[in-house]
Amino acid sequence: MALTTVLISGLGLIGSSIARVMKQSDEAPTILGADPNDDTSQFMVDQHLVDERVTLTEAAGRADMIVLAGPVSIIVQQLKELANLPLKADVLVTDVGSTKTQVMQAAEGLRARHVAFMGGHPMAGSHQTGGRSGRVDLFDGATYFLVTGWQTAAQTAAFKRFLAPASLNWVTMSATEHDALVSEISHVPHVLAANLVNTAAQQLQHDPVGLNAAAGGFKSTTRIAGSDPTMWTAIMLSNSEAITTQLTAYIDALQTIQTAIQHRDEPQIYQFFEHAQAVRQRLDSHEGGNNK
Ligand SMILES: NC(=O)C1=CN([C@@H]2O[C@H](COP(=O)(O)OP(=O)(O)OC[C@H]3O[C@@H](n4cnc5c(N)ncnc54)[C@H](O)[C@@H]3O)[C@@H](O)[C@H]2O)C=CC1
Ligand SMILES: O=C(O)C(=O)Cc1ccc(O)cc1
């Protein structure tokens, strides 16, 4: 049966971009949008990206697909709430949260009711927030992680068709593998970027020139430190174990390079930068997504 009605809860950067892409798809669905933010909601309706503003509680039963796109802590709450709401028998519930173990656990109540759930996470975004910042090309060519739940193959295919205009690279893995991987490539880098800003700001607090003299390197290394603290606090709390383990490895590695610099160990210092340069150059040939 064709899926025609998608409810998106959370119309911020990611939820609004999903709406934009779905509206470009061949089977453009009717989109019901739920978000407590009046400005974002009105903007989405005015732009005809959302057909009707609703609340999740009232409208969940009308949807063929429900995409949860609020902060991870809200997604977890809403999965529990959905398990007690009247829903269509063949609805697919999915999410876009940056962590998956806690989300998959919270979805167990839906499994008990035979309501399909599939975890999801687009690996593209920005430090900006809100529906006005969303873009139709935000995800172009990016990786989109899927964590298989108890959805049917037809439901997965329907979700992929709705997002087809973004030409995504779909990658399926377990929640544990996902959380360990994104901790390494997203969550720990975020902590390091924020720490660079905080440390530099503190050490330069009495310097009249200080941070304002920073060149492009400092700015590009720390761009993500300008992200929303609510979203990142929720991510840290829901992936605390993997992030803690990996931070220990980073602290050890920092101590190793600190010792090499302190002892003026030229070969080791050179090798440190040479290795990073080679890895970083290979990454440039794999660009996907429109992170800005
Ligand atoms: N920002 C990024 O680059 C990426 C974020 N994500 C994940 O996507 C999710 C959304 O992030 P963004 O769109 O960036 O955040 P955002 O801050 O732009 O949007 C979040 C939206 O959720 C709404 N919201 C808050 N409580 C709600 C509730 N009870 N019901 C419905 N909506 C509610 C807010 O009003 C806001 O409009 C998060 O789980 C995040 O971890 C995933 C990939 C990339
Ligand atoms: O802004 C950037 O470059 C990002 O890396 C955005 C981002 C933030 C959170 C995610 O879970 C995935 C991507």
Automatic annotation (TrEMBL):
Prephenate/arogenate dehydrogenase domain sequence ranges: 4-291
A Pfam family: PDH_C
Cross-referenced Gene3D superfamilies: 6-phosphogluconate dehydrogenase C-terminal like domain (1.10.3660.10), NAD(P)-binding Rossmann-like Domain (3.40.50.720)
EC number, as in UniProt: 1.3.1.12
GO biological process assignments: tyrosine biosynthetic process
Domain of life where this protein originates: Bacteria
Catalysis: reaction(s): prephenate + NAD(+) = 3-(4-hydroxyphenyl)pyruvate + CO2 + NADH
Pathway(s) of this molecule: Amino-acid biosynthesis; L-tyrosine biosynthesis; (4-hydroxyphenyl)pyruvate from prephenate (NAD(+) route): step 1/1
GO molecular function terms noted in the UniProt entry: NAD+ binding; prephenate dehydrogenase (NAD+) activity; prephenate dehydrogenase (NADP+) activity
Membrane-spanning segments: none
Keywords on record: Amino-acid biosynthesis, Aromatic amino acid biosynthesis, NAD, Oxidoreductase, Tyrosine biosynthesis
PROSITE patterns: PDH_ADH
Homology family: Belongs to the prephenate/arogenate dehydrogenase family.
Descriptive protein name: Prephenate dehydrogenase
UniProt organism field: Secundilactobacillus similis DSM 23365 = JCM 2765
Lineage of the organism: Bacteria, Bacillati, Bacillota, Bacilli, Lactobacillales
